[in-house]
Amino acid sequence: MSAGLLSLTVLALAIAGYILGRRRAVSVAGGDARKLHSLPSYHGQSVFLFTAVPAFILMIFWLLAQPVYIENRVTALIPNIEADDAAARELAMADVRRVASGLDLAIAQGALRQADLDTLQAGATDLRGKLAGVGVALGADVSQYTFEAAREYRALKGSLGIGMAVAVLAAAAVGFAFAWSRISVAFRARNVSESFVIAMLIGASLVAVLTTFGIVFSLVFETWHFFELYPARDFFLSTTWSPKFGGGSSLGILPLLWGTLYVSVIALLVAVPIGLLSAIYLSEYASRRFRTFVKPLIEILAGIPTIVYGLFALITVGPLLRDWFAQPMGLGNSSSSVMTAGIVMGIMVIPFVSSLSDDIINAVPQSMRDGSLGLGATPSETIRKVVLPAALPGVVGAILLAASRAIGETMIVVMGAGAAARLSMNPFEAMTTVTVKIVSQLTGDTEFGSPETLVAFALGLTLFIITLGLNVVALAIVRKYREQYE
Amino acid sequence: MTDISGGPAALPVSKSRRGSLLTQDALTRRRNAAEARFKAYGAVAITLSMLALVWLLFSIISVGSPAFRQTFLTMPIELPEDKLDKSGTRDPAVMAKVTTVGYAAVIQAALTKAIKEKGISTDGMTPKDIAGIVSLEAPAQLRNHVLANPDLVGQTIDFEILANGRVDGFFKGRVTMETARLDSNIKPEQLVLAERLVDAGIMAQRFNWGFITFPDASDQRPEAAGLGVAIIGSFYMMIVVLVLSLPIGVAASVYLEEFAPKNRLTDLIEVNIANLAAVPSIVFGILGLAVFINFAGLPQSAPIVGGLVLTLMTLPRIIIPARAALKSVPPSIRDAALGVGASRLQSVFHHVLPLAAPGILTGMIIGLAQALGETAPLLLIGMVAFVRDYPGMPIDGFFDPASALPVQVFSWTVRGDPGFVERASGAIIVLLVFLLVMNAVAIILRRRFERRW
What we know:
The structure holds 2 protein chains of 2 kinds. Chain A has 17 helices and 2 strands. By secondary structure, chain A is mainly α. Chain A folds into 2 domains: 185 residues, no CATH class; 251 residues, MetI-like (MetI-like fold, Orthogonal Bundle). Chain A starts with a helix and ends with a helix. Chain B is mainly α. Chain B starts with 25 loop residues before the first helix and ends with a helix. In chain B, strands 2-1-3 form a 3-stranded antiparallel beta sheet. Chains A and B meet through helix 2, helix 7, helix 9, helix 10 and helix 11 of A and helix 1, helix 11, helix 12, helix 13 and helix 14 of B.
């Protein structure tokens, strides 16, 4: 029974539970619903919830645990694998899965029969040819133990699938019976079902915590693997980045961090003056009509997907900078450069700086402005000497938030900054960033277990820590600042 | 009033300020100039950001809009039975033995005949050169058409054939005679022939529906590449995001806004939501790769995985506006409901939530629009794969390989043929139109239904 069909069955059972529970509540009260503690629909609701929710939770956990269990059982069948060699395990499992899905297909298409499978010997029959016949291409001949593992895999998958259906339906039936038996005139169905609903609401809000936990756990876990294969000292201190699939690569993060910082600094050099001055103009000088018209237009820049900026860098800004600046000045011939990515990213970040600064400047009390203007200062003097110093912490917070945006940005640098890792001062040269390398190390056929792939997790963890740190600091500053004037 | 009788002479005259109030002194002039300059800086900054927006949109639209027009050849094509269906059974399974090579010959024959009939000179071009103005994809399209309608064999049909990408580029100004001389894929003579075919009415440009409906095409055939698979993939992902993040997001914001006591757990949840909203999107891609693909064993390139990753990414961005919408419902509504005997849950679900619904929906649509444009996490979960088969119907289709609109843009930009740059920009236009529509719906919803208390 597939998961989809099973969920539909449970759902049908739960709906039946609602209707029957409701009816039973009315009949218990002798047809007079006023005698019940709760409205009949609450009795139905409690049956519905007790039937559906535990069954679905069980199903989700079963679906999560099943692959792990199967993998443990199956890899135990394959000799020559060390228990802690994750790479070899992964590789062997991939083989087993491919053979197993091939067998599934072969049986579905009638090229093989289930009964034959149990007596089949991998060496004796041309399994590879048979599987190729149904459209599953294998790289090498199937060894006997892989074949046996695949057979075990299929058998386990089948029996566990049935087991899941039985367990889930049993859970639903037990929940149904339990809630059904509790229906009586005095039963506080409304209180029960409401606390049930509140528990579900808490569960929904815990998804955010689970996500953070998932991110941290997966990053730390794989980074740990990486540092087992590659010395941490080299990762943090080496100045060369040259991954070679096949071993002997040097994976120093410094050139990537340099590229990231260089691009972000250029982006901030573009975005901070433009964003801050726009915010000042909009909040201090502009008329109401101008403001309601222009502010959304600037915010459009934040709503445009980053892939659009990436393409803009690739087809317009990059060639323009190369033809008009880099080549005449003899600084390089590459259309993807730190400058290209930095300028385009700067445009993207403008609204982050301007909207937050705008809010913060608006939060400066009017009395401070009035005082300064009353002493004879011009509006610009008031802004520079009174409003901005008062708003400074908040503006710094806004800039930090923009910086964390810029550091974590991916598509613009993938398409605009280039892929060559180097430490150079020339802004018209192609350089690369942490995010670009995460993409390039994890895209395509990834094989978990080589340091060249796992390094992406170490890079991801570095990125996560940097942006999180910037955010926490920035949010703390902004919050503290807001409280100051409230 | 006696003290002023001394006259003006008694007033102290400031030494530093001679001259009249009507003429500004140097300091005032400097200060006023500084004021004007400062104001101008602000105006310039706003102009610059507006110009950046206009420049961005202009460059994408001007490069991308030709993708919606495509050059086709329209001519009668004879479908000879002895070549396409030797058995004469009209059984598609048997006819499928004729490969695209056989259909290429049919097209070539038809083209030669049409050229001869119109009396167009081909001065010394080889038959191969003449056939070269037709897309490499055209035989496959003709074959699919014939296999779908086997009865056409033996007849002469009018069929629209895609012109080669370079020929198409010539009419769009991307390819010129000079570039053709250096290009191994096209010869200037072929372009001359194409011009004559246009004059003869055989070749023409028209609106290109194929760009929206066709699947992706291989590196040599930009003219046949379309967004069909990518649009379906994006649509499936949006369904997954909507189905998961609407209930979870609403439930979480109802809890945090209406029920959560002030304690450690609530603080933990709030801090988590605030920080998740700022985590770089690529980190969610790593999470998806590690958890959904490696741990849970879901298939790569599948819309379900993309949808799950985007759901986790969008959730905090939905919860924040949803909480704001709930907060804006005045407490008197809750008090009134509680006053007539409703439970807290009833007051929230029967009164507060319906009143906050427009605001929640607006936030939801804007969150969906952001998810639709997100690229980086999808790269990591294998959505860049080259997919030519349309995914199946839901729910099974959610597990089939597919592409996504923004990822399709990315994978086109890394291809060699310059025709793909035009396609990529065209795809961006499609994406922007979708975003525009979603945001417009959000704004209309807000205008029409949002209540001011």
